[in-house]
């Protein structure tokens, strides 16, 4: 008895739909992509009850004539490619001819469409894949697709749907992707008859970001632009160092206009941020990668969410580089912002602190900064001598920043043109030390200090392997470590800035800390990681009282850093509270 049967077309579509249509958001994705491929200038999306009961996408694109409309519901019917070779240069979002038949096979589906010059349009009603009605329709030019009762005929799928709210949020995220990817197209999104957003046509990504997420986010983004000889062009905007999110929802990446998820690109972005990102946090990116379509395979994922690069390494390197450069470039902006307002009137307290070349009053430089928030008078004898002569300090007019005082013995309060700046002196010191040590490590190696007694210790074979492979880097970091028999090492010196005596114990900890981090990292990265993990112990403690000159130097040194706005663990070093915010809080402006 023969056991193999050909599946009826509708069943085959339903099976295929399992891959293409996972949830309401996938329907919206496919429909909006079709509208974009049809050259729409405006796309209106409406959903009800998480899209499960109703979704509608209306576009003003090229529409279809009757024959094409009928064909569009056939599987493997597409106007977008003709041969496999076309896939190499596909410029449309769709190419498989799967989406419409898949959606129509698992819902109550209605499509109306009309070409701009046609007298009449076409209306089609399909239920569970079966065409029930085809007739003339009189809608506006363009295409309108309505999808009701998703998965009504596939209960197994229905069970996997989440709460309506979750499905709505997924749809909204999907629309964010499309809207950011296509700033020149107007979008509206209504949920349960309430308008969620209305985005006008714009010409720039920046405008679209502002319309969708607000000016405050836009102000924290750095523009990115790079095209190099390797035929990879990267543009868009990324969050400046210190800006991060708890989820990946604002980490948007587009490859040739297609929103994609890619572990490779995610890792590259993370590496580019490196110390500019807190552990467990995600950067904000609107990153657009343009690459020769032949160098990327878009046909590797049923929902077209992933791509495969022919040369993943060059893509990775390009991204790491452009992110590093962009973040470092953002520094100039910060320094500019830090400038004290031209008309800054020094307060009485600050005026007292102004550094004048008064030889007769040498203790002037030792004077305490005014302490906001109290905390008692710090011990004068702890004052660290500042050996910089008065003459060196810049005249007030050229000074970039205006220090007001210190809060809680920790936060330096400063005034700039935008309002109030708070600097975490501990985080700031960490950043300064980190960059200083990294520079030394790159240039001549970190100076090390001999241990009183040479220690030998044994490691598990895998750890021993790891040390063997990284021994040169470890030495450059000031760790005097050498092989001493199988799986055994001897250690006779440690970096001078460290405060440890038990070298073996320290090494075990370093290995634990760094092994995971080093999987994909370069040796230099490893050094950075180690510095970031150890400088903390050395940085100014939160409650160390600092003298004016020290604070001034701290801020100056911070501004000279490559990435001044966050500590090596990605925590912010400074926070801006704008004048507008202050005015709002004091009820001066509503
Ligand atoms: N909104 C629309 N406006 C104009 N034509 C459309 C629209 N939606 C679909 N079509 C036409 O119907 C065809 C089939 O659409 P469908 O989404 O099923 O496949 P596709 O877009 O070609 O490929 P994919 O399955 O990868 O999305 C398209 O190739 C296109 O010609
Ligand atoms: Mg399509």
What does this protein structure show overall?
With 590 residues, this protein is α+β, with helices and mostly antiparallel strands. It contains 18 helices and 23 strands. The strands form 5 sheets. The protein has an 8-stranded mixed β-sheet with strand order 5-4-3-6-2-1-7-8. A 5-stranded mixed β-sheet has the order 9-10-13-11-12, with helices on both faces. The chain has a 5-stranded mixed β-sheet with strand order 16-17-18-19-23. Helix 15 crosses helix 16. Mean pLDDT is 82; it is low at 346-398. Bound molecules: adenosine-5'-triphosphate and magnesium ion. Residues 30, 33-34, 94, 99 line the site of magnesium ion.
């Amino acid at each position: 008895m023969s056991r193999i049967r050909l599946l009826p077309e509708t069943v085959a579509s339903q099976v295929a739909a399992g891959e293409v249509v996972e949830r309401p958001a996938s329907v919206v994705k496919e429909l909006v992509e079709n509208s974009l491929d049809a050259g729409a200038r405006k796309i209106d999306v409406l959903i009800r009850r998480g899209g499960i009961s109703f979704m509608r996408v209306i576009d003003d694109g090229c529409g279809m004539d009757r024959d094409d409309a009928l064909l569009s519901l056939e599987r493997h019917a597409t106007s977008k490619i003709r041969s496999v070779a076309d896939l190499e240069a596909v410029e449309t979002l769709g190419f498989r001819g799967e989406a419409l038949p898949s959606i129509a096979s698992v819902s109550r589906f209605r499509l109306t469409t009309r070409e701009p010059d046609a007298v009449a349009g076409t209306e089609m009603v399909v239920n569970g894949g079966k065409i029930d009605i085809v007739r003339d329709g009189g809608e506006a030019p363009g295409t309108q697709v309505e999808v009701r009762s998703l998965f009504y005929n596939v209960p197994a799928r229905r069970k996997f749907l989440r709460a309506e709210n979750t499905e709505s949020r997924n749809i909204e995220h999907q629309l964010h992707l499309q809207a950011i990817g296509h700033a020149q197209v107007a979008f509206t999104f209504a949920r349960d008859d309430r308008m969620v957003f209305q985005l006008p046509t714009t010409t720039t990504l920046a405008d679209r970001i502002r319309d969708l997420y607000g000016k405050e986010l836009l102000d924290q983004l750095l523009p990115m632009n790079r095209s190099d000889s390797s035929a990879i062009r990267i543009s868009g905007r990324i969050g400046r160092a210190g800006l991060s999110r708890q989820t990946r929802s604002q980490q948007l990446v587009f490859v040739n206009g297609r929103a994609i998820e890619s572990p490779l690109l995610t890792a590259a972005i993370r590496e580019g941020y490196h110390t500019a990102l807190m552990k467990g946090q995600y950067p904000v990116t609107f990153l657009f990668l343009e690459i020769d379509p032949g160098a990327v395979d878009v046909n590797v994922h049923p929902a077209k969410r992933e791509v495969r690069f022919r040369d993943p390494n060059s893509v990775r390197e390009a991204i790491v580089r452009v992110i590093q450069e962009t973040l470092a470039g953002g520094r100039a902006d910060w320094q500019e912002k830090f400038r004290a307002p031209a008309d800054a009137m020094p307060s009485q307290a600050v005026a007292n602190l102004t550094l004048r070349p008064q030889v007769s009053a040498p203790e002037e430089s030792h004077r305490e900064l005014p302490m906001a928030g109290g905390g008692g008078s710090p011990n004068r004898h702890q004052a660290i001598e500042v050996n910089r002569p008065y003459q060196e300090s810049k005249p007030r007019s050229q000074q970039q920043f205006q220090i007001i005082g210190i809060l809680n013995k920790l936060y330096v309060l400063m005034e700039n043109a935008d309002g109030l700046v708070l600097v975490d002196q501990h985080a700031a010191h960490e950043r300064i030390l980190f960059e200083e040590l990294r520079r030394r490590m790159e240039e001549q190696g970190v100076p090390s200090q001999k241990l009183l007694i040479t220690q030998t210790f044994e490691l598990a074979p895998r750890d021993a392997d790891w040390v063997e492979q990284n021994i040169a880097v470890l030495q450059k970091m000031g760790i005097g470590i050498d092989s001493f028999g199988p799986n055994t090492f001897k250690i006779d010196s440690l970096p001078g800035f460290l405060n440890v005596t038990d070298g073996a114990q320290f090494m075990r900890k370093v290995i634990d800390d760094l092994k995971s981090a080093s999987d994909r990292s370069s040796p230099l990265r490893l050094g950075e990681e180690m510095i970031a993990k150890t400088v903390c112990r050395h940085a100014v403690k939160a409650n160390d009282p600092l003298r004016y000159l020290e604070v001034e130097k701290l801020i100056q040194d911070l501004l000279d850093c490559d990435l001044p706005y966050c500590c090596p663990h990605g925590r912010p070093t400074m926070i801006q509270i704008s004048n507008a915010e202050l005015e709002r809080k004091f009820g001066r402006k509503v």
